[in-house]
Amino acid sequence: MNDTVQAEVIMSFLVSEELAFRIPVELDFDSADPYAIRLTFDLPGDVPVTWTFSRELLLDGLSRPSGEGDVRIEPSSAEYLSDVFISLQVGAERALFRVSAPPLVAFLDRTDRLVPLGKEEVCDTLDAVLDRILTEAPAG
């Protein structure tokens, strides 16, 4: 049985300088995939959209600009833990969100109690599977 952590946070979808929409976003963590977290946007009348990225990226983004690809996270202020910007990009399209940091910290704390950062066992399992495959592979 896998243990999970879930939380709902309210994010502001920043359409422009003058326009923002508050939307609920589901955060999910599954101990079977301890390196990843999922953000699911489930807007009325729309198909839910889920983004999966590293738990470490979210943690790093709370204190400094982080991410180099489709997901970038950075604090809104360097002085204190307040809000965080999350930028999601597909091709030329980009969506920018602002979310309060304390609910993210609480979520990450709960994931850390379930699977401490740095103590993930997926690699050990993967190594064991690879070793078995390589030892069972016919020489050729």
TrEMBL record:
Gene Ontology annotations of biological process type: division septum assembly; sporulation resulting in formation of a cellular spore
What protein family does this chain belong to? Belongs to the SsgA family.
Which source organism does the UniProt entry give?
Streptomyces kasugaensis
For this protein, the record's Pfam families field holds: SsgA (PF04686)
Protein localization: Cell septum
Please verify whether the record's keywords include Ribonucleoprotein: no
Principal localisation: other
**Highest lineage ranks of the organism?**
Bacteria, Bacillati, Actinomycetota, Actinomycetes, Kitasatosporales
Q: Which domain of life is it from?
A: Bacteria
Q: Which UniProt keywords apply?
A: Cell cycle, Cell division, Septation, Sporulation
> What name has this protein been given in UniProt?
SsgA family sporulation/cell division regulator
Question: Which Gene3D superfamilies does the record associate with it?
Answer: Sporulation-specific cell division protein SsgB
Cellular component per GO?
A: cell septum
Q: Which InterPro entries match?
A: SsgB, SsgB_sf
The reply to whether Cell cycle figures as a keyword in the UniProt entry is: yes
